[in-house]
Amino acid sequence: MRQLLTNSFQQLFSKGIQLATLIPAEPWLFDYYQSMGFSPTFYYSKQELQVPTNPTNDIRIEKCAEYREDIYQYFNKKQLERNCAILHTPEDFKVILADLSLAKNGMRSLQSKIICI
User: Fold this and answer.
1) Exposed (0-12), middle (13-18) or buried (19+): which is 12, by Cβ within 10 Å?
2) What letter would DSSP give residue 52?
3) Shortest CA distance to 116 belongs to which of 88, 93, 86?
4) pLDDT tens digit string along 73-88?
5) Of all helices (H) and strands (E), which one includes residue 40?
6) Which of 16, 49, 97, 105 is most buried, by CB atoms within 10 Å?
7) Beta-carbon-side half-sphere exposure of residue 75 (alpha carbons within 13 Å)
8) 99: helix, strand or coil
9) At 71, is the secondary structure helix, strand, or coil?
């Protein structure tokens, strides 16, 4: 993994890219990535939502595994409201949807922090 990261850094440097971000898959990786020059940058909290058993007309809950432009536009609007965030393109959003479709019940508990070098 050290060699993979070193090669990645060399490619980024050669292309003039001065910032790299990653999201550790496991908490123990924070120490490893720190040894490679990364540091925690963004933190967020987890919020659990209770789905009402009888939602009103104002609330629409649906499970969607395929990309839809209207859903991406809502997602993009919400990410722009954050004080600090890494913005996701439509292509990124498609990857997020694919990841969620692999998770149990189409949801995934996201407790990781984003770290930057």
Assistant:
1) middle
2) P
3) 86
4) 998 998 899 887 788 9
5) strand 39-42
6) 97
7) 17
8) helix
9) helix
* Encoded tokens for 108: 């995934």
Domain that holds residue 96: 2-116
User: What are the CA-CA distances from residue 87 to residues 24, 26, 62, 77, 79 (Å)?
Assistant: 18, 22, 24, 10, 7
Cα 55 → chain centroid:
28
- Token pair, residue 89, equals 């393109």
Rg of the chain over all Cα atoms, to the nearest angstrom: 17
Tell me which residue of 22, 27, 52 sits closest to 37, measured CA to CA.
22
pTM of the model: 0.54
The SS3 of residue 35 is helix
pLDDT in tens, 41-80: 777 677 777 766 776 666 666 677 788 899 899 989 988 9
| Residue 74 DSSP SS3 | helix
| Domain total in the chain | 1
**Distance, CA of 95 to CA of 78 (rounded, Å):** 18
C-beta pairs of 77-81 under 8 Å, 24+ apart in sequence? none
